[in-house]
Each structure stands twice: as structure tokens, then as C-alpha cells.
Amino acid sequence: MRKPVVLITGAGxxxxxxxxxxxxxxxxxxxxxxxxxxxxxxxxxxxxREFTGSILDTPxxxxxxSEFEVDTVFHLAALLSTRSEFTPTTAHxxxxxxxxxxxxxxxxxxxxxxxxxxxxxxxxxxxxGLPDLAAKAAAGRVLEEEYATPTTMYGCNKLYCEQLGRxxxxxxxxxxxEPQAGRVDFRCVRFPGLISAITVPSGGTSDYAPxxxxxxxxxxxxxxxxxxxxxxxxxxxxDGVAALLAxxxxxxxxxxxxxxxxxxxxxxxxxxxxxxxxxxxxAAITWKADVKRQGIVDSWPxxxxxxxxxxxxxxxxxxxxxxxFDEYLMPMIRDRYAKERR
Length: 342
Ligand code: SER
What we know:
Helices cover 47% and strands 17% of the residues. The protein is an alpha/beta fold and 342 residues long. It has 2 domains: 3-193 and 235-261, 3-Layer(aba) Sandwich (Rossmann fold); 195-233 and 264-302 and 319-335, UDP-galactose 4-epimerase, domain 1 (Alpha-Beta Complex). The strands form 4 sheets. It has a 7-stranded parallel β-sheet, sandwiched between helices. It has a two-stranded parallel sheet with strand order 6-13. Strands 8-10 form a two-stranded parallel ribbon. Helix 8 packs parallel to helix 10. The structure holds serine (SER). The site of serine has 10 residues, from loops.
């Protein structure tokens, strides 16, 4: 007999780390993972089964399909925005074709067990593309429908996959005699930059914030790759994980849209520098803007309007800028690097 499980792709990444821990500690569901790299032993111990391989590997997905009754998918596997600019066709394969594979997988799972598969997808502020700094300053808190003109391959991939998910949800609903049965129940958030105390990102463009914090805590020098006045929204990782779980369990009828903005705080890089220097007075942080990466964050909004997520499924981040630093990042990061030094 196949057992109902949650499937997490890209499980070894930053979001996967928090998601595996939170789901398995709650004891509610068993987790099966798929990642191109083996999981860290501490994570591997928590999951029911770990598959190592690509989301483009159809025989591997068929094997998961035959062995597990997947009722929820968190499809996190992706190449992030900076990395995708270096290898855009690979990014398209992983980010778009990979998502298509997982949607098709979920459709077949749903048909085989006769219930919808909840498919949770992290899109991104990269789905936005503001034409210049004047437009960014004038736009303020952008709504989901505004400035849907991304400048990066990653942003194009995310925006298109939001639509692909919507297509799967609508198309199969129309084909099915029983609208709720056997279909993909696609739900998606547009994440701001995420900052974790436990992991450091790689290949993204919002990475300057977590990199600055972690470098300071380790006592390493850091050259920030954006200007001090750069401003985009961010969120502490526990709020990101909580948001994915809240969206996954929200009643379907409460959801009025496919993609929801999320935000929590939106400091400038200078404001991040100020709190980091206050916490680590000796931190050697310098400014060295990278033209391409600066161009990417300049095209992302300074803030987002997330009132739809708050209204429809009760999104309410626990951490504002101060609390994120004082109660989450600083204590956990200090503890982590102190342990490593011992
Ligand atoms: N944090 C991601 C990146 O910088 C955006 O979703 O690529």
C-alpha cells in the first residue's frame, strides 16, 4: 500500500531545510525528498525517504509515483537569479521544464488517488521588473498585477510557472466531472529576499543581506555588491516556512488568486549595515557595487502590497526588522559560529 506523504523538491536548499524540520517536528506528515545533492545527515535522518537526482529525470519521478501517494508537493528546486543569468538555458530547463515535470507528476498522482494534490510553489519578487529607479521610487508597494515585466531569466521563469500552475489547476478542473477530484491544487507565493540564521544562500541576488550578516558573525570581511541606498523587501526564514505551510492548509474556497505577494520588512542595504555594525562593531564591511547584480535588484520593487495574503489566508509575519535581528538572527547566528569556533 502506498502511504500519503509530502514531497519536497530542492529539499537541501535554504527553504527546504526549515520546511523539513518544521513538518517532521510537528509529526503530522511523512516527508519524501528529491534533491540533486544528498541531504545533510541531520536532515536525512528526519525524512522517510531521500531521492538524489534531477527533477528532469522522468524515470526517477515515475519511481516516486509508483512508491508514494503524494498529497502535497513543495516544489522548491530552482536555479536562483544571479546564477540563472550565467546559464540561462540551463535555468530555463530546471526552472520551467522541471516545474512542468512536477505539475504533470502531481496531476498523475491526483488521478491515481482521486483527490487533489496541493502544489505549493515559491515564486519571487524577481517576477517584477521596474524600468528604472524613478519608477521604483514612485511605485511604492506594488500589487501582484503591476510591473509584471521581469528583467532576468529567473524572473521570467517564475512568472511563467505561476501561469503554468494556474493552467493545470483550471484546465483539469474543467475536464473533470467532479471538480475537486483528481487535479492539481496550485498555490503560490512571491517571496521577498529570505534571511536564514542557519544557512547561507548561493546564486541569488538578495544574497547581500544574509552574506553581510553571516560574514560579520564569522569575523570575515565582506564587500557588499549593491549600493547602500538599495531597498527591497525581506523576510526571516521562519516566517517564510510558516507562510508556505499556512498557504498549503488554507481552505481552497478562501483563495482568490494564484500568486500572493509576501513581505515583512524592507530595509536599505545601509540600514542592514547599521544593525550589523551595531551587533558586530568590528565588522569589516565595504561597498563594491556589481553593475549586473545592482541592475537586477534595482528592477525589483522597494516594497510589496501583501494585503491579499493577509486577507485570504491570514498571512502575518512574526518578525519585523528589529525582531528578526534581535530575536532570531543574532542569537542563533552568534550561537552557531561560537559552536564552530569551539
Ligand atoms: N532570493 C532570490 C534571488 O535572489 C529571489 O527569489 O534570486
